[in-house]
Amino acid sequence: MSNTSIDINENHIAPAVSWRDYLELCKPRVVLLMLVTAYVGMHLATPGLVSWRVLVFGMLGIGFAAGSAAGINHLVDRRIDAMMGRTERRPIPTGKIEPRNAIIFSLSLGITGIAILYFLVNPLTAILSFITLLGYAVFYTMFLKHATPQNIVIGGAAGAAPPLLGWTAVTGHLNADALLLVLIIFTWTPPHFWALAIHREKEYAKANVPMLPVTHGIPYTKLNILLYTFLLFASSLLPYVVEMSGLIYAIGATILGIGFIYYSSVLMFTTKPNAAIKTFRYSIIYLFILFILLMVDHFFKIRF
After folding, report:
1. The pTM is what?
2. Distance from C-alpha of 16 to C-alpha of 276, rounded to nearest angstrom
3. Which of 135, 169, 274, 299 has the highest count of CB atoms within 10 angstroms of its CB?
4. Percentage of residues of the chain with pLDDT beyond 90
5. What is the mean pLDDT of the chain?
6. Other C-beta atoms within 10 Å of 266: how many?
7. Per-residue pLDDT tens over the stretch 101-121
8. Highest-confidence range of 8-22, 76-90, 191-205, by mean pLDDT?
9. How far apart are alpha carbons 165 and 172 in whole angstroms?
10. Does the pLDDT at position 211 exceed 50?
11. Residue 6 pLDDT > 90, yes or no?
12. What DSSP assignment string belongs to the chain?
């Protein structure tokens, strides 16, 4: 009986929690990509070097706000996450982090991030970051995601904000060039996420989430991915058209755009089993390199 008692007690021991679980709650890989775009936005906002104060506290505040939004997303989506293979091992579905602790952590992170931006960077960046946090954590996660198959299109505005936040952190005001960077990420988001949604279509259907492949079918989603990829290609060349960037960026953006069109065309016109996930993975590489090219071009601009 003593062995049985020990087994029963052991079954009720909560999973051990570590700092890595709280880091995972912040979606670190997603936030890292967002911070790269914010970092580039900072450098494109000035012909000189970004001050260390803006760089350090701006990146810290934007990162904290983004991590807070991610944590709230984990909390709200915990039921859906438990039903999907991609997310079932997240800290809340596995019981490593209790919902109460997740919301305390996420809100604390968000308040700290907004306060850093307001007092140590500038009020405009703090306000825009707060609006972005609400847009993703509340408007998208709680309402749009379950209301319409265009959820990722409308909600993509929040995810597209980091380069604008980086820009305003340096300048303290809005600028048309910064909005071009937002447009690029805004048009990138649907083909990026819909490719993943095709790969996980059965899981989204099981979780009753109205992603486009679930509501309109995979062929229709593939067509939309291809069309958005062409739109993205055009959007990505606008910085060169308006002379915001030079030849280095134009050549790189063209090569990257052709690559994205290739992947989306393979997805559209073939039945290769891994085409969707390969398109999704390429989209991440695409955005990362595109923004690095913007910064390289900024410092070594070559005019045609």
Report:
1. 0.92
2. 35
3. 169
4. 83
5. 92
6. 15
7. 999 999 999 999 999 999 999
8. 191-205
9. 9
10. yes
11. no
12. -HHHHHHHHHHTPPPP--HHHHHHHT-HHHHHHHHHHHHHHHHHT-SSPPPHHHHHHHHHHHHHHHHHHHHHHHHHTHHHHHH-TTTTTSTTTTTSS-HHHHHHHHHHHHHHHHHHHHHHT-HHHHHHHHHHHHIIIIIIIIIIHHH-TTHHHHHHHHHT-HHHHHHHHHHSS--HHHHHHHHHHHHHHHHHHHHHHHHTHHHHHHTT---HHHHH-HHHHHHHHHHHHHHHHHHHHHHHHTTSS-HHHHHHHHHHHHHHHHHHHHHHH---TTHHHHHHHHHHHHHHHHHHHHHHHHHS----
Asked if 153 and 190 touch (Cβ cutoff 8 Å), the reply is yes
Do residues 74 and 102 lie in contact, with contact meaning Cβ atoms separated by under 8 Å? yes
Other Cβ atoms within 10 Å of 96 Cβ, number: 21
Q: Which overall architecture, per CATH, does domain 17-173 show?
A: Orthogonal Bundle (1.10)
